[in-house]
Amino acid sequence: xxxxxxxxxxxxxxxxxxxxxxxxxxxxxxxxxxxxxxxxxxxxxxxxxxxxxxxxxxxxxxxxxxxxxxxxxxxxxxxxxxxxxxxxxxxxxxxxxxxxxxxxxxxxxxxxxxxxxxxxxxxxxxxxxxxxxxxxxxxxxxxxxxxxxxxxxxxxxxxxxxxxxxxxxxxxxxxxxxxxxxxxxxxxxxxxxxxxxxxxxxxxxxxxxxxxxxxxxxxxxxxxxxxxxxxxxxxxxxxxxxxxxxxxxxxxxxxxxxxxxxxxxxxxxxxxxxxxxxxxxxxxxxxxxxxxxxxxxxxxxxxxxxxxxxxxxxxxxxxxxxxxxxxxxxxxxxxxxxxxxxxxxxxxxxxxxx
Length: 354
Known about the structure:
Largest sheet: 7 strands, parallel
Radius of gyration: 20 Å
Oligomer: single chain
Number of strands: 17
Number of helices: 10
Strand content: 15-25%
Structural class: alpha/beta
Mean pLDDT: 92
Low-confidence stretches: none
């Protein structure tokens, strides 16, 4: 199979390229090398790829690359919390407009299989149960509660404490950041395209991905990378809230394997969303402490507070991925963090990159 892999020089995309090549497929990598993620130009681990530096939103590039392609694996995106709302135009341009251009040109080229890198951020908060009202959706957490150290969202009906659970793919979608809104828009665009064309779309909702080649020293990086950067400077990792926020940290090689399965599993001519997770939830504090221990650094410092749009708990239900893709994570949290402590990271992003 010949695959166009957008964002293939990036953290996750480069591992997807490795998995595809190891499985005997042809890979054409398209990457804009955005300075928010790439500090040193083309990374050394992309030397063996057929790679084009260009924008997914450039029709001329797509018209040149799509003929002869059997499937598209769309990883290219602007990711992370970003800096502030001034990032909004860049998020919508890179994530939503570019996806629309890609889908239009895939239709023209007759390509009917898409694997889309989505995210757990489309859920907003995870799943919660109230002892009186059953499954409920808590509202956004209030700044006054966060400032007072009250981090757990209460039941919106009676104010009782809630029990967090596993969030399935059919949970309500409620993005709470600019990035999250653009990822959900990507899903909606891909779903509409799928229904119009009879194509196959797998939307892989990645949970907290970590591992080698993560970008470093940038506000667009993941929390594991930020913790490691502090430790490399001899500083204690700074953990927001109380450190007890629950997440599912999944190793990047498992995420790459999920993409390979989605590209090669027989299609159903429909849009299918799938959680890509480890099935082994941990707290943010667990990640900080495990990295500090592995790197022989100072223990984490809990600093309280919360960023706008942060949610308390998002822990994935892994069952659908196992049922429809045969996917189960292989890398344990302990093994993955031990490897990540010394794994190569991406060069620091360019200073002042926009």
